[in-house]
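Protocol step 4 of 6: record predicted structures for both targets in the notebook before any analysis. Target 1:
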Amino acid sequence: MSVQATRRLVLQWTLRNATCPVLNLRTILGSDNVRQRGFMTCRLLCSTHNQTSTLHQHTDLSQLQLQPGRELSIRALLDMGFTDTQADQLLEAANKGRGGQSEHASSTLMALFVLGLNPSSVLKVLEKCPELFYVKGTQLQQRMDNLRRLGLLEGSLQRVVSHYPQILTLPLRRVNTVARFLREKCAFTVQQATDIIRDSPAVVQDDLGQLEYKFQYTYFRMGVKQAEMVKSKLFRVTLEEVRCRHSFLERRGLYQTPDKKGQTLIVNPKLKDILAVAEETYLADIAMATREEFKVFQKMMAREWQEEDEEQDRDMGADSDDDDEEEDEDEEDMKSGYRQRRKK
């Protein structure tokens, strides 16, 4: 559903069910501001806190604007296009949060509708992330606009929000910091950074130290370039899974770290064939091993990593005077950073 079509549909619902005499088509469409039109529409669709059904017909718009705690009603949700069951589920979700229904619930719904989501998608988004009920509508709109500026256009933006609505609960600074980190520290292009956020939106909540280590491990240890990382959706996979699957192949003689010229004595499997497949497929087609062998190897690797961490903790304690040295951003310093302690 396009944004324009959604706006027209919301206006149709409003005018078809409107009983407030002071709000008509000219009032809504006369506003030059799209957000104001949506906000005025939302005011009509949502009843005031604890109001009666007769008040719905006689409330003046100015009085409605003075009510800070408007609640969603079953009728308003039905008018928006939700079924009876969906309306009950949504109202239950809105009321079970922090001490009852949020005053921002109505503006949250409007923002999601204006984004282009249909009632079923809106319900799924709010069931996945009920925290959105407590985000101001203006903040939601700012965060959506920011994602558009990062390159998530219509279609991609709707898919990201549907798959990972938690991205709309994060401050703009956090999302922009991760996008800039991918470009500056990991040398991804602007388009590649956009593709990563689109395909792996949970990356915006990853620890930046772990994120950098995962990139450097894949780049230096496995010899994989940025384009293949994006194609294989590297950032959907945990660092432990990357290391474990790679090390298992390496110790079985099925993977080699490329030399300085990027050459190996064997043909390494593609990163997407290592990471972007189910464990059964990985074991059968790539590692050619049994699940029991892999489980034993995982336990062994967990012990090795724990020992490494303990040893590096001791080394870092002895060399703490060197911790304040600044690193350059060229490839050699990135490589030295990769050799540093794996952050937890």
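Target 2:
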Amino acid sequence: MKRVSPLFFVLLILGFFFATYNLLTMIIHYTTSSSENWDFSDSIIGMPEKLKEGGGSNSKYHVALTATDAPYSQWQCRIMYYWYKKVKDIPGSDMGEFTRILHSGKPDNLMEEIPTVVVDPLPEGLDRGYIVLNRPWAFVQWLEKATIGEEYILMAEPDHVFVNPLPNLAHGKHPAGFPFFYIKPAEHEHIIRKYYPKEKGPVTNIDPIGNSPVIIRKSVLEKISPTWMNVSLRMKDDPATDKAFGWVLEMYAYAVASALHGVRHILRKDFMLQPPWDLEVGKKFIIHYTYGCDYNLKGELTYGKIGEWRFDKRSYLSGPPPRNLSLPPPGVPESVVRLVKMVNEATANIPNWDTLNRG
């Protein structure tokens, strides 16, 4: 037998990779070309005043979050679901049913506690260690297989806590989203144009958002999701894009996918607060505890340096935080105090808190 050239093996491996990628892309094909030509006002600024103040569509929305079976994800989901049940039926809430979209590919030990739909993760290696890349793929699968009774969907995350009853902030085909200060499409136009060509319009058509929190009509999300999936894969596959966007790459992908479909979001700064930077809860609806909260005993923020008092979700990667966390020292902002009290209330009332999901 003739010796096979090493080049042949290289080409064979590359061919297998692209075949796998293209198969996935075919399954979740682009729907950009079929997007409707909707007439949208500018986000928030151009909206009628009544849209800026109260609720929007007054229709129930389904609460959906993506998660893994890791203890770190599980304990956050348990707290999140506890507070969903607490505020669901309070006047002012438009919450419908709840689904944890578990993209680990198999059931876990929270199936009886939290309403859950199991979906597949991306093929091994395709996320390249960026676990969040599974989120759009999870939503694509869930929308295809689940029976969803509500007209709207709230895309949420495990580290969200409902601090006030949340109305439906969307309005018709206008989704509602939260403006993130670090999502700046105009500052990355040379990157954005790889995915949002000039003929689609100015880069300012892309909202400064991620996919969560977003309240969106189900039919609109069904159109956006496959595009969001494919744009995410393309961005991760491009080294320059991956370097520029880093851990927020999937957020940019959702914003770009929405713009490709002509979808503009009502931007609601009151949708969410993020301690320790947001100091008061006020009338905001969700606490997002993604940032660590570090303070000295004088109540002074020591961000970037471990404080004498701290609450940081990343301190509990292998298992849940203990019950009855110590409260912050005097002088710490109300938002942080409220967060810790809400965590303590949830953990005090959730059965088997210390043992069920400890890794």
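Step 5 preliminary note on target 2. The CA atoms of residues 174 and 293 lie 34 Å apart. The two ends are 53 Å apart (CA to CA).
Proceed to step 6 after PI sign-off.
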